[in-house]
Amino acid sequence: MGGEPLEAAGLAVGVVDDHPVVVEGVRTWLERDARARVAHVADTVEGIPENLDVLILDLNLHGRLVLDEVADLASCAQRVITFSQFTEPEMVLAAIEAGACEFVAKNEGRAHLLEAVLSVADDRPYVTPTAAGVLACDRRPEAARLSERERTALLWWFQSMSKRSVARRMGVSVHTVEMYIKRARVKYAQAGRPAPTKADMLARAIEDGLITPEEVVGYRSAAAGR
């Protein structure tokens, strides 16, 4: 199954699944709403267009789990919704920790998938019943599960670096840095710890041990002496 050309209107959604029946079902679900269209279809993560608004990704492709691919896509600021029949708590948590913006079970239907697509594209939190049940039963500390790239962007941003400076240091665009920060903010909201401002985000990061107050002050002092 190869990639299909992008069209021009609405949210551009990619669907990667190795079952054609599932792909056609998702296409039918989404394209009943004028706000979304399927702009790319494939059965592998190779050759995914960079300008997709959202990517719906089956976690099991050709008999292989693709959690590493989720992390790679998330590190490139792709908004990924993992879409799977595997709903074991460890699988849901692993997908979210890898950088997926949302987890949708294949049995949750059109309404949840569409709402997840619209919310993720707008960088708003949305938690499906499956993900909500898993997160509610997770007894680990309520830290937002940030990807490594999200943590790096936040750390440097907190150290009084402009987003442009962070982007230059990370070797990405300013848009990508903004995506990392927005996605981290969504994850804090999903964990029940909203952080609408930079000060709130810094407080959450200190609570979670991502950064210490000394690191922030130390960087500012060093910068001031230059």
TrEMBL record:
It holds the Pfam family Sigma70_r4_2. Gene3D superfamilies: 3.40.50.2300, Winged helix-like DNA-binding domain superfamily/Winged helix DNA-binding domain. The modification 4-aspartylphosphate is found at D58. Keywords: DNA-binding, Phosphoprotein, Sigma factor, Transcription, Transcription regulation. Residues 12-121 form the Response regulatory domain. It comes from the Bacteria. Belongs to the sigma-70 factor family. ECF subfamily. This is Response regulator. It comes from Actinomadura fibrosa.
